[in-house]
Write a structure and sequence with these properties.
2 copies of one chain form a homodimer. Chain A has 355 residues and is an alpha+beta fold. Chain A folds into 2 domains: 167 residues, D-amino Acid Aminotransferase, Chain A, domain 1, CATH 3.30.470; 165 residues, D-amino Acid Aminotransferase, Chain A, domain 2 (Alpha-Beta Barrel). Chain A is built from 7 helices and 22 strands. In chain A, the strands form 2 sheets. In chain A, strands 1, 2, 3, 4, 5, 7, 8, 9, 10, 11 and 22 form an 11-stranded mixed sheet that branches. In chain A, strands 12-13-14-15-19-20 form a 6-stranded mixed β-barrel, surrounded by 4 helices. In chain A, a hairpin with a 2-residue loop joins strand 3 and strand 4. In chain A, helix 5 packs across helix 7. The longest helix of chain A has 16 residues. The two termini of chain A are 23 Å apart. The relative contact order of chain A is 0.14. At the A-B interface, strand 6, helix 1, strand 10, strand 11 and helix 4 of A face strand 6, helix 1, strand 10, strand 11 and helix 4 of B. Strand 6 of chain A pairs antiparallel with strand 6 of chain B, so a sheet runs across the interface.
């Protein structure tokens, strides 16, 4: 049976799958909620969005997504507080960035109203799917791909925007050991590295696998020209603490403008932590590690929030990071998740209630 | 009704669509033949391939192709000669390159037998779909994408290999005008530029559109670091003739090892044309254009075969190429297509009969 909320037609699932899910033992991004949002672009315009039972999508084998990688996505999380209210974190940042990514990949920009109304309507409906066990949340994945078909290497004439939801546990278990990569690269100058475009991720799998075979969990990407500067940590932004100064690389056309990254910068500044946004040399990390001034490294991103690094490899050497009692990573993670879960004041106005 | 040819199960279409197709007026890659080949990777192995009616594929919305751009493809053409025999051109080169691309994108390599037997069995069945009007051919598109689902940024556990066929006219009509790109880039050092990976193409659409808005048809990609060297022409390799010497950029991890590219090099050498495989500076093109020694530029690739360039733009200037009576582009195109259509001897052993 179909109903309508605002501009969105809703077809509800006949029987919820929720009782079959073990909410105390959730993987990351493998269990999906009952409903999804779908919106089609055709005839030169985004059409009316619909919410329907989560289920398969049927595509022509010549749909351009299969051939030319024309896709963009966002990653978000919904949290539930002690009173059972549902919250998002800075969703308008994701909305803006989705269109920035789309522009670079020649995907038609999605009207803000479709994104925001679709997101909030879907999350109101899926509120029971937001887990409450510590460290867990409802991972929300908006994405757009080229559904129009044709074997000519040119933009498609049809696209599909989806939002799917996955109740999820933590992305990484514990600290990660990373390898500074000097052969493979993530992004070119003038390329698509700043966009959350599908192709940016597929290209990382092989070098990451090579690093994993050597005992590391993630790769630290360096610039493709000199490999002298660190840029990102796997699919996260990278932070480094030398003495008491927190540093991160500036965003560029090679580096994603992460929502967690900029939130961490703002929180750190509010905490009185000296923050430097500047290019960070690999040599600087190594000498700081040797002289004891390298205190911390961590990745920052929506999926992992803040992921502390236990050590890094460079060429044939391994460098360990100290165990700190009062780490910036722990402090910043507590501050940001307390805002996300509505456990603390939100001086920045980042929390966004959805139900 | 199902039959079996070799290792391949064949389910034939009930009624062919072929009579509905206007073979005298074919677009490129928009009309598809009756059948396609499908082969699944699951449980750690490529399964038995099947030929079935061309039709939609059903996927979970969390299939990794939609999120992480994990896909590779090949482009090939089948030709029919005056006696009605069907031919491919160097198909084993495509088979090898597909696996080279797959390895970089963390897609499991496809056994050669599945590729070659699948290809030849499908083309025998689709032989009537090979057009015979001049300049036309059956465009053959083998491709693999990640069908396994999950919102974790890591390789999928399931993949699909398809071969689809599209009777096609020429890719470009006439000569093309190109713009030397100095802001956007196609590939990074240590990136995936040498792979026929989907994401390489999506990233080209926007800069190409900007060039088209200025009156050019394609972009000449330069290296992402200095923009001083030309690398590729749109989705083709690039050739330049200065005086009587034919030049092309060496392949690298940024440049595709094109089958047409290496065939052109071999034919040119056999014709006694001096060939230089070396990096080509933008400045060299401009000064050669000014002093009259720049005779020709052309793109080379399977879809367009050889695509002559009428002129190029650089910054705010345009440079015209002369009209030559005996161009290398025309000679080389005739030599290569005469081999492809079985109109001439094949001293290189490139032709491959399929039916």
């Amino acid at each position: 049976m179909e109903t309508k909320t605002g501009n969105i037609i809703i077809e509800k699932i006949k029987e919820s799958k929720i009782t079959k899910v073990d909410f105390s033992n959730l993987p990351f991004g493998k269990v999906y909620s009952d409903h999804m949002l779908v919106c089609d672009y055709k005839d030169g315009a985004w059409q009316a969005p619909r919410i329907m039972p989560y289920g398969p999508v049927s595509l022509d084998p010549s749909a351009k997504i299969f051939h030319y990688g024309q896709s963009v996505f966002e990653g978000m999380k919904a949290y539930k507080d002690a009173e059972g209210r549902a919250w998002l974190f800075r969703p308008e940042e994701n909305q803006k960035r989705l269109n920035i990514s789309s522009k670079r990949i020649s995907i038609p920009e999605l009207p803000k109203e479709i994104f925001m109304e679709g997101l909030t309507t879907l999350l109101k409906l899926e509120k029971d799917w937001i887990p409450t066990t510590p460290g867990s949340s409802l991972y929300v994945r908006p994405f757009i791909f080229a559904s129009g078909s044709g074997l000519h290497a040119s933009p498609a004439d049809q696209y599909k925007f989806f939002i799917v939801c996955a109740p999820s546990g933590p992305y990484f278990a514990g600290k990660i050991k990373v390898l500074i990569e000097e052969k493979y690269s993530r992004a070119a100058n003038g390329g698509v590295g700043y966009a959350k475009a599908g192709g940016n991720y597929a290209g990382q799998f092989y070098p990451t696998q090579l690093a994993q075979d050597k005992g590391y969990q993630q790769v630290i990407w360096t610039d493709d020209n000199t490999h002298e500067y660190i840029e990102e940590a796997g699919a996260m932004n990278i932070f480094v603490r030398i003495n008491d100064t927190l540093m991160t690389s500036p965003v560029s056309d090679r580096i994603l403008d992460g929502v967690t990254r900029k939130s961490v910068i703002d929180i750190a500044k509010a905490e009185g932590i000296p923050v430097e946004i500047r290019k960070i040399r690999v040599e600087e990390l190594i000498s700081a590690s040797k002289n004891g001034s390298l205190k911390e490294m961590f990745g920052a991103g929506t999926a992992a929030v803040i992921s502390p690094v236990s050590g890094f490899g460079h060429r044939e050497s391994d460098y360990s990071l100290p165990e700190l009692e009062n780490s910036y990573a722990a402090l910043l993670k507590k501050r940001i998740t307390d805002i996300q879960y509505n456990k603390a004041e939100d001086p920045f106005g980042w929390r966004f209630q959805v139900g």
